[in-house]
Prior knowledge:
single chain; four-stranded antiparallel beta sheet; 48% strand
Amino acid sequence: AHLVEIGGGLVPPGGSMRLTCIASGFAFDHNFMNWVRLAPGKGLEWVANINSDGDAATYNEAVNGRFTISRDNTKNTLYLQMKNLIPDDTAVYYCTNGFPGAAPDYWGQGTQVTVSS
């Protein structure tokens, strides 16, 4: 199995960014998927989850209302649209499979998001 995250970079506070995760080698459309993040000096933080059909999502309170997780099962692709970014959103973002809180089977290599002026 393979997960590749793309789309990170430097963005000013208040800005927007979209992350993309391209999956291969497993039944993407049968898996719940997550975005998680790891910030300097902090532990791993779950960000959002979406069910296999893409019609139900849950969010960490810290990002609720600012981030939107979505997926396109025809393209084996997961997305995270982020808006109104704040410095505390600075982290390496990873896509993983599975239910929130459960140990994932698959991880991507991560993509760095830096929110700074």
